Fold each of these.
Amino acid sequence: MQKTVVVIGGGISGLSTCYYLSKNSQFSKIILLEANKRLGGWMHTIRREDGAVFEQGPRAIRPAGAIGRNTLKMVSELGLENEILPVTAENPASKNRFLFVNGKLQKLPSSPVAALKATPPFSKSIFHSILKEILVKRGTLDDESVHGFVERRLGKELADIAIDSLCRGVFAGDCRKLSMRSCFPPLFHAERKHGSIALGMVLGERMREESDVKQNRLIQQARKERWSQWSLKQGLQTLAESLEDHLRNTHRVEIHQEAAVQQIRMGREAAWEVHVEGGRFQADYIVSAVPANVLSSMLPPAAQPLAEELQKISPATVAVVNLEYDGLVLPVTGFGHLIPSTENRAVLGIVYDSVAFPEHNRKGPPSTRLTVMMGGAWFTEEFGSPEEADRARLLQVAVQAVKSHLNVKEMPSWSNVNVHKDCIPQYLVGHWKCLDNIWTFIKQHRLPLSLVGASYEGVSVNDCIFSGKRVAERLLGN
C-alpha cells in the first residue's frame, strides 16, 4: 500500500526525522514542508570570506550520553568525521567556566579537590552542600520549580546563584518558574527513587549502549579524548546542509521550501489534507517539527483541546550578538561566563568562542570572537517586543557587558545582532502534565500525528535529533 508522510518544519528536528524515515521504504513518499527559504531552522552560521565563522544559533554540541552518541553516529554516517572540531579535556573551554557575581568574574570549581573548598561567590563548599543533601527528606510534589527543588535540597545560595545562572544559560529561563521534572528529569527522578540526588546519581543504572554505538570510531575517539563539546570546521550549519544534501540525493524525500502550512484538515482520500498557499498535500501521517504554539494555529476545530494544550508551551526570545575584537583581549580563558538574574536581568551570559574554537577565527592577525546572549524570559521587560527591539541598543548593551565584565576597553571591529523570536520553549512547572494531556488526546482520537522538536522533551540539538529518530522508529515499527 502506498503511504505518504508529511513532515512540517525543516529545522534540525524535521531534517532528522526525514533522515531516519528515509532509511526505510515503508513510506512510499516523504514530503518535507518548510515555511522559509532555507532549511536548518535556528542552526545558522555566518561564514566570512576571511575565514571567520560565527554561530547565530547553537554553537557547539555535547557528545555525552545516549543522545550525544546518537548525534555522533549520524555525523559519521553523513561522512563528516574529518570536519569535526573537538574540544578536548585539555582545552581551557573544558576546564574553566565562570560566573559574574557581585561585579566580579568568579571561577567555578572544576575538580573534586576544588569542590572541597569554599570558593567565592559561595560561602560553603559544594561538597558540604552535597553531604547535607543526602539527609534531606524526599520531596512529594508531582513537580516543583527548579529553584524550589535546589533550594530545598542544596540550599538557597546554590539556587540563587549557580542554578539561576545555569537555567539562564541553558533555557534562557527563570529557574523560579521552570519545571524541575521536565528540565532536569534525571535529578528529579533520582530523588524520587533514591531519596537523594547524590545517592541517585551514584546508584543509578548506566544506560546500556547499543552494539553499533560501541563500534563507532568517532564515539570511541570522543570518549578517549574526553570531549566536552564539538563543532564543525564551517560551523554547525554544515550538519543541516549535509542532512539536506543527503535527503535530496536519496530521491526519497520531496522538499518544499517557502511552503508555510496554513491549515491541517481531516482528509477524505487520505487521513490528512495539509494546506499551503496555492495548494495542498495529502498525507496518511503527519510529523510536526514546528514549535508547539505554531502547530496549535494549524489544527482543525475538532482538535481545539489539543491546540489549547500546545499553546501552554510558551517560548522565550533571545538576542544573540556576535562580536569580534582585534587582538587577544580576554583576561581569562574558558568556555565563558553566566550571569544570575540578580546581577543583570538583560544579559544572560557571554561565550568566549575563540577559546573553544580558535579554528573559527579569521585568517591573519590575532582576533577574539565573543557571543553575548540577552533577554530570554526577561526580553520584553528589558528590550520591548521582539519585532520592535532596537538593534543599536542591543549592540550597545552587549558591548557594555563585555567592557564591564571582562575589562575590554576596545570597541569591536565587527558585530552582528540577531533577535531570535520564540526560539527556546519554556518548560514551566506542570509541563509534564501538559505533555500527558497532549499524548492522551492524540492516542484517544487515534490521530496519525507525531510531534518532534524542542517544545516537548529537550531543547538541545541532540534532543531534537533524537526525538526525530524515536518517532521514525515508532512509525516504522522498529
Amino acid sequence: MALAGRRDAPLMLRGGGKPLSRGSRIAVAVAVGVALGCVFAFLYPDGLFFRPSASALQWPLHVDSTACESSERVTNLKSQLASLERKNAELSKQINELSMKLQSDGQRKDETLYKAGPLGTVKALRTNPTVIPDETVNPRLAKILEDVAVKKELIVALANSNVREMLEVWFTNIKRVGIPNYLVVALDDNIESFCKSKGVPVYRRDPDDGVDNIAKTGGNHAVSGLKFRVLREFLQLGYSILLSDIDIILLRNPFDHLYRDSDVESMSDGHNKMTAYGFNDVFDEPSMGWARYAHTMRIWVYNSGFFYIRPTIPSIELLDRVAGRLSREKAWDQAVFNEELFFPSHPGYEGLHASRRTMDIYLFMNSKVLFKSVRKDAQLKKLKPVIVHLNYHPDKLDRMKAVIEFYVNGKQDALMHFPDGSE
C-alpha cells in the first residue's frame, strides 16, 4: 500500500498544497523538455553524438600533402599549359586558314547578290577584302610592325652585306624625306648591327636553312627571290607592304601617291605610256595572205623590285605561287612574278584572280625613263618623281648619287655624263 501511495503522490504541489492534475503534469514535463532541448541545441549545434566527416578529419593531412607535392604539381601545370598553348596556336592557324577560305568562297557567292543597273552605270568591284590578322604566325614580328607601321602600312627592304653601301644611301634618303614607316629585313648579322648603329628599324628573321644560305651569299637575283617567302608573314599579320629594292632613291613619300584599289600596285619596266600601260601590237605574217595581220595586246612587265601589295587572299596566293615555282625552277623572279599575275586561265592552268594597277611611270620612274627620255626633255626635267629605280643600269651606286645631286641638290648637269644604256 505504501508503494502504491508513492506512485500516486504528486510530483509538485501548488502554493496551496494541492497536488497537480495529470494534464498539468504532462504540460510541465513538455515545457521542461523543450527548455532542455533549446539549451542543448545552443551548446551543441552539431549534436551530442556528432562525428566529424572523413573529409574533415583528413583535411589537415591533405593540406600537408599538397604543400609537399606543390613543386611537382607546378611543374605538371606548366607542362600542361605549354601543351595547351601549342594546341591553341594550331587551332588559331586552322581558324585563320578556314577564315581565308570562307572569305574566298564568300567572294564567289557574293557575285549572285548584285543586279546589273542601266547601261553605262555598272562598275565591278576592284578591291578584295583583307584577311583576318593572325598574330600567332609571328608574335615577334607582330610587335615590331605595331611599333613601326603607320595605318597598317610600311616600306620593307631586304638586304645583306653585299649591298651595304647602297643600303645606306637608300635609308638616308628615306630619313631625309621624313618617312617613318619603313623596315629593313636583315639577312645577316652585319646588316642587323649596321642598321641598329644607324638608328634604322631592322628585323632579323629566326634561323631558316632554306632562306639563310641564299640570304648570306646570294647575288641580287637570288636575294630578290627570297622576298616572296619573307613577305607572306607580313600579309598574314594584316599589313600592306610597299616592297622596295635598295637601288632606289625615294624623293617623296610614296604613300601619298597610292590608289590602294588593287591587290598589287606596281611600277613598270615600260619606258613610255604605250609600253607601260599596254598597246595593240599588230603581228604581220605575209604567208597567211588575207589574214596576214594578227592583233596582239602587249604590256611591258611589272618591276618586282617596287610594288605595293595588300593583305588579301589573291595576294597571298601570288606569293605562294611565285615562291613555289622559284623553289622548283631555275627562273628569274621578275619573270615568274609577271607570269603568275598576267597569264589567264586556260586548259591545264588556273590563272590568278588578282586585281592589279600600273603606277604612273613619271612618278615611279625607272632608270630607262630617266636617262633615255626625262633628262633630255626640258618639260619632263621639271617634274619631281616620287622614286627613281636604277634597275636598268649596272653602275647603280654612281647613278644613285647623281640622282640625288640632280633632284635634291639641284645640280642640273649631274645626269648628263652618263650614257643612255650600260655601254
